[in-house]
Write a structure and sequence with these properties.
Strand order of the largest sheet: 3-2-1-9-10
Distance between the termini: 30 Å
Structural class: alpha/beta
Number of helices: 6
Radius of gyration: 16 Å
């Protein structure tokens, strides 16, 4: 049995990330962790979060880090000055404070190269959502990074289960039909959550892990 762990939005909460990694390590000796994006902004320790993710997993583990809309805003702010205001208004101030100034260029490069989506036999992992009006391989970056899926909404998703973050609620992780939202509002006083999936079993999570912010 292979296990996959989907971790919701971290938003600069480095202590919660370390607690989550310890819980995952205690849960299984090996597996894959999919981080669903939004590692930075709003919280106090974005630099530490990126440093930890860039350092990579322990032996026996695979980490897949997806891009969130906040990483996209940060990269845009450093490449186009006219986009800087949008990012700063959405938590970029706290991110730059965590670097005592400007974001490390290596961290920017890492964030710029992150994938937007990961699929396996049974599931689709993405930061925000997907549009079923388009083929899965024709999704727009805007939807993958910014879509807000209405509460209670679910679709077929090409026969797979959709796993995402982006829309926070302290009641998450929550599974609605063919969809699980893992963003449990860590930076807003909720928890950092992780949905656990069996690679051999279709559908929603077999378990969930949560740690305090």
């Amino acid at each position: 049995m292979g296990l996959k762990f989907a971790v919701g939005d971290i938003h600069g909460c480095a202590d919660a990330l370390e607690r989550m990694l310890s819980r995952i390590d205690a849960y299984a000796a090996q597996g894959t962790v999919v981080f669903l994006g939004d590692y930075i902004d709003r919280g106090p320790s974005s630099c530490d979060v990126l440093q930890r993710l860039i350092a990579g997993p322990p032996s026996g583990w695979t980490w897949i880090c997806l891009k969130g809309n906040h990483e996209d805003m940060m990269v845009g702010a450093y490449s186009s000055p006219n986009k800087r205001g949008l990012w700063l208004d959405n938590g970029g101030v706290e991110t730059e404070m965590s670097y005592s100034g400007k974001v490390d260029p290596q961290h920017l490069s890492w964030a710029a190269g992150l994938p937007l989506i990961h699929c396996d036999d049974h599931r689709i992992f993405v930061h925000a959502g997907v549009s079923t009006l388009l083929p899965l391989d024709k999704q727009s970056g805007r939807d993958l990074l910014w879509m807000r899926i209405p509460a209670g909404h679910s679709e077929d998703y090409w026969g797979k289960h959709l796993v995402h973050g982006h829309t926070p609620s302290e009641s998450n992780p929550k599974t609605i039909g063919n969809r699980t939202n893992v963003d449990s509002a860590c930076v807003f006083g909720g928890s950092l959550s992780c949905a656990v999936f069996d690679d051999d079993i279709a559908g929603g999570p077999i378990d969930c892990i949560a740690v305090p912010a």
